[in-house]
Design goal:
CATH architecture of the largest domain: 3-Layer(aba) Sandwich
Structural class: alpha/beta
CATH topology of the largest domain: Aldehyde Dehydrogenase, Chain A, domain 1
Shape: globular
CATH superfamily of the largest domain: Aldehyde Dehydrogenase, Chain A, domain 1
Strand content: 15-25%
Number of domains: 2
Largest sheet: 7 strands, mixed
Number of helices: 15
Distance between the termini: 72 Å
Number of strands: 22
Length: 481
């Protein structure tokens, strides 16, 4: 006898989405100079949620000038203990409005409400709480006895974790005494704009946080603005390379958190059920829209069939559908463009001879969806084993020895993360020393904490976010005032 899940949708009524949003500059919402707007769309239904102002060159300049004025006249001069009070206030407001923020995130992004509610929002608040605690202790963070802020930080964030990436960027910048101009992704601007309301509610001084919306051109104008002292970007490797070229020769500080093609490595002594749960969490969490996703499963040859069979059974239990339903495991793909990219790479895997298996599930008639998919018979030459798919697609490769696992895991232009599954602690340490990845998980995957630094090597970028190390990206030992 089987039991069907009854729908358990979260109410949309907790969110009041305006028909139109302006830019948040100098503490107020204002129209763009050109009056141009663009739609933001619910990826689960293709419904237009709102029209959002598109910032041009004049708007970017206004925002940077407001941030400069706030830095020089208010925020950069403010004692750390007073900055901390604002950050604590923002953190508490995020907690108070967490249900509203979670629903809005799932509507605008397509991710399941369980993930927005139980993962993203607690971490968002935690980052503001953690960095609030550092604001008056920066002299003890290992960056010199009297580290100073850099000035105005330009921050460009992606669409996969809109509010969490905002927190990763804004919280340390403000704690260190910098002011911010942030551009969210054009497909997911709504929680950033709601965060702007929270800044108003917290009485944050005008100009300390500015949020401008638009597409790639808006981001380019912000990054290249001469009034910016620091650039922080999370997104695709190709855009990161473009930013690096554009800033070459300038005095701007830069951190980049880019793509990944992480290996989740399972040895024959690993507990099968636990490892399968870790693999599922590693690649199918947030529909695979995760830069550190474990998109390559390296499994020891002697247990490969057992692991793949168990993985397919587990994927058959995942529920794809309405992101606002609390039972949903797999939500919507963020955009039609991203769905087309996933489909193209999956087609290449089939054309190159890998064997595809997709979980049986009903695909809704509207919206953008892709079923959880596994490829076996994959070699290191396949595109699906080398390129970042950024979707719910797993490539399975095998290995015989730890040395072979290391060689295959490191055979990628990326170096963001990796996972190791084994009962031997000595093997974990041996592997971790040899894996060229910025974050390595042992017998778990996709676990984050604001006290731990995150970042990559090679084409996954440079610099760290979170922890004491992340503070250094927004501080200088030179006296600037």
């Amino acid at each position: 006898m089987t039991f069907e899940y009854a729908p358990a949708p979260e109410s949309r009524s907790v969110v009041n989405i305006a028909a139109r949003y302006g830019l948040f500059i100098d503490g107020s919402f204002v129209e763009s100079s050109s009056g141009a707007t663009f739609p933001t769309i619910n990826p689960a239904t293709e419904e237009v949620l709102s029209e959002v102002a598109e910032a041009g060159a004049d708007d970017v300049d206004r925002a940077v000038r407001a941030a400069r004025r706030a830095y020089e006249e208010v925020w950069g001069r403010m004692p750390g203990r007073d900055r901390a009070k604002y950050l604590f206030r923002i953190a508490r407001l995020i907690q108070e409005r967490s249900r509203e923020l979670a629903v809005l995130e799932s509507l605008d992004n397509g991710k399941p409400i369980r993930e927005s509610r139980d993962v993203d929002l607690p971490l968002v608040a935690a980052h503001f709480f953690y960095h609030a605690g550092w604001a008056d202790k920066l002299g003890h963070a290992g960056h010199g006895p009297d580290p100073q802020p850099l000035g105005v930080a330009a921050q460009v964030i992606p669409w996969n974790f809109p509010l969490l990436m905002l927190a990763w960027k804004i919280a340390p910048a403000l704690a260190c005494g910098n002011t911010v101009v942030l551009k969210p992704a054009e497909t997911t601007p709504l929680t950033a704009l709601l965060f702007a309301e929270i800044c108003q509610q917290a009485d944050l001084p005008p100009g300390v946080v500015n949020i401008i919306t638009g597409a790639g051109e808006t981001g380019r104008l912000l990054v290249e603005h001469p009034g910016v002292d620091k650039v922080a970007f999370t997104g695709s490797t190709e855009v990161g390379k473009t930013i690096l070229r554009s800033l070459a020769g300038s005095s701007k500080r830069l951190t980049l958190e880019l793509g990944g093609k992480a290996a989740n490595i399972v040895f024959d002594d690993a507990p099968i059920d636990e490892a399968v749960e870790g693999v599922v969490n590693g690649i199918y969490f947030n529909q695979g829209h995760v830069c550190c996703a474990g998109s390559r499963l390296l499994v020891q040859e002697s247990i490969a069939d057992e692991i793949v069979d168990a993985l397919k059974r587990r994927l058959g239990t995942l529920r794809l559908g309405d992101p606002l339903d609390k039972n949903t495991d797999i939500g919507a793909i963020n955009s039609s463009e991203q769905l087309a990219r996933i489909a193209a790479l999956v087609s290449s895997g089939e054309a190159e001879g890998a064997e595809r298996w997709s979980a049986p599930c009903d695909i809704p008639e509207r919206g953008w969806w892709f079923p959880p998919t596994v490829f076996t018979g994959v070699t290191q030459a396949h595109r699906i084993a080398r390129e970042e798919i950024f979707g719910p697609v797993l490539s399975v490769l095998t290995f015989r020895t730890p040395d072979e696992a290391i060689e295959k895991a490191n055979n990628t232009p990326y170096g963001l993360s990796a996972g190791i599954w084994t009962e031997k602690g000595s093997r974990i340490l041996w592997m971790a020393e040899r894996l060229r990845a910025g974050v390595i998980w042992a017998n778990t995957f996709n676990r984050f904490d604001p006290t731990s630094p995150f970042g990559g090597y090679k084409e996954s970028g440079f610099g760290r976010e979170g922890g004491i190390q992340g503070l250094g990206a927004y501080l200088t030992k030179e006296v600037t005032r």
